[in-house]
Amino acid sequence: TYPIDSARLNTLLTGARAYECDDEQITVLLVDDMATAGMYWRKQFARANVRLLFETRPQAAFDAALAEQPDVILLDLYMPEMDGVDLARIFREHPQLSDVPILFMSTEERDQHRLEAKLKGGDDFLNKSIAGDDLIRMVRYRAQRYRQARAERRTDSLTGLLNHRAITSLVDSELDRAIRQELPLSVVMIDIDRFKSVNDTHGHPSGDRVIRRLSTLLNTRLRKYDGVGRYGGEEFMVVLPATEIDAAVELIDRLREQFADIAMTTEAGDTIHCQFSAGVAGYPEHITPQEIISAADGALYAAKQAGRNQVKA
Ligand code: GH3
Ligand code: MG
Ligand code: MG
Ligand code: MG
Predict the structure, then answer these.
(1) What is the pLDDT of residue 95?
(2) Which of 108, 174, 234, 235 is the catalytic position?
(3) Contact 273 CB / ligand 1 (< 6 Å)
(4) What pLDDT digit, counting tens, does each position of 204-260 carry?
(5) Closest ligand to 235 CA?
(6) What's the average model confidence in pLDDT over 68-82?
(7) pTM, whole model, 2 decimals?
(8) 169 against 20, higher pLDDT
(9) Burial of 127 (C-beta count, 10 Å sphere; 0-12/13-18/19+)
């Protein structure tokens, strides 16, 4: 018999069906040295709301993967310039591509070769003669699992904001974009004032409530393309694309006032108010992520020194 009870199996099957129904657009990168493969699969995928990027050469495939961040990579095994397994290894070694599902597609039928390919970085091995609908289902399923895992990896569990790793990598990518598009970028470091005394007086769970309340304020008041993350314990980072430092200071100062006005309730039912200090820095005043973050940190320190509950640049 199965080492799994029928109720559990049922949940699993329902889950699998949910993946199929999902019709959100996904992006697939197909790498195959035969141009006809691209033509064939483009037609198949178009009807299933799958955006296909097609490349015949390894370097172009790598560039496309980095630029477009596909949800799934379909990789031919035998190509004149480079073996699929070698290309898979290169994808696996890049931090931004290391977890993207890689599905080999080949006519290779020898078990030993298929096993080798999987051991060297492939998540699955599909036959090139696979039916269109089956590949679409497979690709959707993989994409959905990948997106979910990635979202979990990037999220801070207390607040639902981006976590430290995700918000700092957003500074990297938004700075690249700002430089490319010749637009300003502002980065803000926010730190709750005298937070230790909130914990000491009202207990850690009440402190957590304050952290969540500020998270909600930041999340609801900022624009959809602004990034908000929990940098550390009671420290937050905000990334504001296309925003000059002066405008960022003004914006964060309004949020500072709003936060100070919020009456929060502790676990014990007491009403408390909290405040924060913030430091702002950005591009083009600074040109590396490290410089920007340390300048924002310096401005935050100055705000604390000057008496807290204020924003400095
Ligand atoms: P300052 O105005 O100088 O920032 O004073 P502060 O007390 O806020 O500064 P400090 O950095 O010394 O204290 C931060 C405190 O935040 C210490 C730590 O116990 C608390 N803290 C860190 N993470 C969490 C958390 O997840 N939940 C709660 N409740 N407290 C946390
Ligand atoms: Mg080939
Ligand atoms: Mg702190
Ligand atoms: Mg603090």
Answers:
(1) 84
(2) 234
(3) no
(4) 999 999 999 999 999 999 998 999 999 999 999 999 999 999 999 999 999 999 999
(5) 3
(6) 94
(7) 0.79
(8) 169
(9) middle
Gap from CA of 160 to ligand 1 centroid (Å)? 19
pLDDT average, residue stretch 147-154? 92
Strands 264-265 and 271-272: antiparallel
Region for residue 47 given its phi and psi (left: phi exceeds 0; alpha: psi -120 to 50; beta: otherwise):
alpha
**232 Cα to the center of ligand 1, angstroms:** 9
Q: How crowded is the C-beta side of 154, counted as CA atoms within 13 Å?
A: 16
Average pLDDT over residues 266-292: 97
Q: Which atom, in ligand 1's list, is nearest to the CA of 233? A: 23
CA atoms within 13 A on the CB side of 269: 0
pLDDT at residue 220 in the model: 93
234 catalytic per annotation:
yes
- Which ligand gives the minimal distance to the CA of 38? 2
